[in-house]
Amino acid sequence: MSYFEGDVKNVAVIGAGAMGSGIAASLVLNGFKVIMIDIKPEFVDKGLSNIKRILDSRVKKEVITSDQANEYLKSVKTQVDYDNLAEIDFVIEAALEKIDVKTTIFCELDKILKKSAVIASNTSALSISELASHTNRSDRVIGMHFFNPAHVMKLVEVIPGLKTSQKTIETTQKLAKSLGKVGVVVNECPGFLVNRLLFPYMNEALYALELNLASIVQIDEMAVQFGLPMGPFTLMDMTGLDVCLDVNDFLYNEYGERFKTNKLLKLMVENGLLGQKSKAGFFVHDPSLAYGANKEINPKVLELLSGLRKTEQIKDEFSFNQVILPMFNEAIYAYQEKVVELADIDVAMSYGCGLKRGILSLSNEHGLKWCLAQIEKYHALYGERFRPSWFLKKIVRSGIYNIMEMTDNSQKDGLSLAKLT
Ligand code: 3HC
Questions:
Q1: Which end of the chain is more exposed for a tag (fewer CB within 10 A), N or C?
Q2: pTM given for the model
């Protein structure tokens, strides 16, 4: 079978939502021609205005001139069908996070794209191997997972399916690099790496809120003090609570009780509180204000919470460890399953969600024994969401203090980025 050998030039993005249009913006800003496709004219129009907003912001920040912005905008074509895709070298699918929707798209694309074209999915968690099985080009199907805002966050998780060829991995890495991103190869598992670590943390923030251990603002502030650029509730509002629910439910189905979805998230989605996109989530969002400028708590959430909370509240003193340790524990689970190399974990968390310090640094600061003891304490209090990884127990028993002692490389080089780029 012939394979596309040259550089990727023409890219199609399926889906003109926040992710699709952010990816398209990233592509045109880096010299690619893009066809952005969605099912309705109003969807592609909205996506195009998002690209325009991003380009205008670049002009305001004097990164590009307004002439350049106009040229970049001309590099995006929009359409509501699969016509004119004969020259496309690479497709990035960023449609709804539903397996049926994505498999239909993959089947359709497989029929019309040239044989050498690669189809990548920006899925947050779904199986790349399953999507590939709906095509006759499993070797040229791959996961290319961007992070929101896609034109800003530097990480791209590159996820080969079972049959993805080395050549497809290299092409995808090269494309990520030409967008100024860092591609980290992640062995396929539900949620890949970053979402697998982010979701138990965001979910636990919801449980802490439900148990009335701390307020939305307090937990968000603690997260920022810990080294995250925004707290879990601000992040959920930005990501979209419907997306969070879909991903968390998927992870719960795949991994079980460790990911048991919190009821408040379900209730909020049922009540149409989807975050920024519906102008109301944990916070009320005024679209005329800059992102994050409005920090008014949505009274409807407090109403939903009071219906959920039991009269007798747990009186434990709250520590942010309760919310962040599930992220640490899941990082060890991912390492235990060889999803990534150890040194890649902190790099991915830094570029994917802006974590200014490594999540693994917890073991450096407090020692692995302390981390395990804390997780076991919460396990006894709250059950299976805190089941410690067996690998964590094994390394504690072996007397290792800091997880970074596990690799010679990480000790010698710190978090070597050279390996990743
Ligand atoms: N929604 C959308 N875009 C936003 C935003 C928001 N709430 N807040 C900021 N931005 C955009 C701004 O418009 C700006 O874009 P521009 O460069 O085109 O003008 C850009 O981000 C930078 O904004 P600021 O100058 O205000 O920069 P900040 O220093 O405040 O950083 C941030 C903003 C980059 C969003 C930072 O807070 C951050 O890194 N947050 C963490 C984001 C994160 O964790 N992303 C991963 C989510 S998980 C995911 O996407 C996976 C998916 O599968 C669920």
A1: N
A2: 0.93
